[in-house]
Amino acid sequence: MKGLAPAVPGDSAADHARVTHSTTRTGAGMVLLLAVWFGLLTGFGELASVMSVTYILDRFLSHWGWHRVWMTPLADVLIFLVPGLLLALCARFWPHRVTLRTCVTIFSILGTLCLALFFHGRIHILALLVLACGAGVQTGRMAAARAAGFQRWVRRTAPVMAGLVLVLGLAVSTWWRVSERRGLARLPAGPAGAPNVLLLILDTVRAMNLGLHGYERPTTPSLERLAARGVTFDWAMSTAPWTLPAHASMFTGRYPFETRAYYRTPLDRSFPTLAEALQARGYATAAFMANAEYAGRATGLARGFLHFEDYVPSVGQVFFSSGLVRAFQWNRPLRRALRYYELLGRKGAEQINASFLGWQRTRTDRPFFAVLNYFDAHAPYLPPAPYDTLFGAATNRHYLVQQERYIDVVQPEVAPYVASELAAYDAAITYLDDQLGRLLDELERRGVLQNTVVIVTSDHGEEFGEHGRLGHAYNLHTSLLHVPLIMVAPGRVPSAQRVRVPVSLRDIPATVMSIVGAGESSLFPGQSLTRTWDPGKASGEATQEMVVSSEGDMLSLFSGRHHYIRLGTGREQLFDYAADPLEQRDLFNSEAGRSISSQFRAALPAPFAAGRTGTFH
Ligand SMILES: [Zn+2]
């Protein structure tokens, strides 16, 4: 009758083996090896996900950079070593408690969670946790059932994966150096006496907070000294209220609705860039981007630069390259516990300057075109000491950062803290201005400044509740579009001049080509801004183009002293931006306002004039 007895767990040899293996003890060494192995495996899994989206779906992920091929596995190893060390300690002192199955289950849960966080935002975190726990328990059971084989496999493959990380790290570092050297070797000789071009982009710096533009706080002594040597544009307008489309316009001369560079869409190869044009004229080209997320290589902005720095390896960047750290980087309780409010891996102006000056020292044989993007005035506003208390050690300073409210709708309870955030923003601009002064002094000391076209501008401004919001990218008000623009080039640009008509940053490529002697290049649309100061050419408002900015299906036009905005809903607004720069008085419904608006309506650019609705990206 034995053969008819129902099978019960533990009866068969297989079940016996399973039970035995599930309680297999694991030494501290194996626990640590498992942590490293799972960390590496998770890192490569994360890379596969990110690279599939970037190179197969052709979407850009703002956190992708080539150094991630080694930084992500390394970051995951470091993260896995935290539970790994705790388990190893347990294994040392309570060897009966730590089994292979426990270790594999814990590491698998963590690994699956790291991979599943790729869908964070689309799938609820609790659902991801349930998925991770289910996968972890299952993997733990399977590993325990084949304990000896599994541990052998881990011992064999861990060194292979670690070696791969090392090789990838060396390959990435070497690849860029070699490709830059090769690119330089292929360049044609630069035209004799051609000036260098230095484009300094102060990310998120709005013109109205600059002493240069009459602001009550002395935020820009260095810029004012620089302005005395060139032309200052009182009303320079960006083409977009956020980083990528604005940079794309400055590099191509095209509007955002032409380049279509947007949150998940990189700048494609449809239009030539200024860096490509200058490289073709023999320039050594380089960019040093502190805003690595939205002005990094993944955005398509690197085209034409022989040397391009975005994500530079650092401890902060290593951790930032892990999906787990990124998902929880703004976790309020965690931030408060760590008392850490800074962006992980943020590159300060000092570092950007040092990188550029180091590169410039080795490029003295030909003219250079260099773009420096500074991220110091971007939220969270955390200038270093002693600048941090420059405009008052306001109580509750950084309240908004601590509350994770630095980019949000201004609720009544937040409003009282906006003034202290504005003081911190002003202090950050002052720090940046000081660093610009140091950079220019060093270039002067090196004898480079005399033959360099220096352009200082910003990609967009910032809002401090003027229209109910903090941060940028939500609307097309002057506070977001009005940016500084200074051009200095001894012997090529007049000194101490101010241009009072509105101009667009999209004219930068045409202007640079004109100043360096490449003529009114047909490569770039728009008009050279030399028209605004060249007495040989017609100047004044009559010759000005309509200054256009856009965001999605919102459009803004500047002309004369008026600013016309058409929202995606079709609603129209009109402001006298010169008299009312914070745009608190909408003139659209006045009789004069309707008449002026009809003139703007007649000048709408093609995609908007056609009456199409929807996003032009
Ligand atoms: Zn920006």
Question: What report would you give on this structure?
Answer:
This protein is of the alpha/beta class and about 625 residues long. It has 20 helices and 17 strands. The chain has helices spanning about 15-20, 30-55, 70-95, 100-115, 125-145, 145-185, 220-225, 245-250, 255-260, 275-280, 315-320, 325-330, 330-340, 350-360, 400, 415-445, 480, 510-515, 590-600, 605-610; strands at about 195-200, 230-235, 235, 285-290, 305-310, 370-375, 450-455, 465, 470, 480-485, 485-490, 495-500, 505, 545-550, 555-560, 560-565, 570-575. The strands form four sheets. It has an eight-stranded mixed sheet with strand order 5-4-6-1-7-11-2-12, sandwiched between helices. A hairpin with a 5-residue loop joins strand 16 (about 560-565) and strand 17. The model is unreliable at about 1-20 (pLDDT under 50).
Q: In percent terms, what proportion of residues is strand?
A: 5-15%
Number of helices: 20
Oligomer status: single chain
Catalogue the ligands. Answer: zinc ion
Indicate the percent of residues in helices: 40-55%
Which parts are unreliable, with pLDDT below 50 for 5 consecutive residues or more? 1-22
Query: Biggest β-sheet: count, sense, barrel?
Result: 8 strands, mixed
Q: What class do helices, strands and sheet pairing give?
A: alpha/beta
From the spread of the alpha carbons, the general shape counts as globular
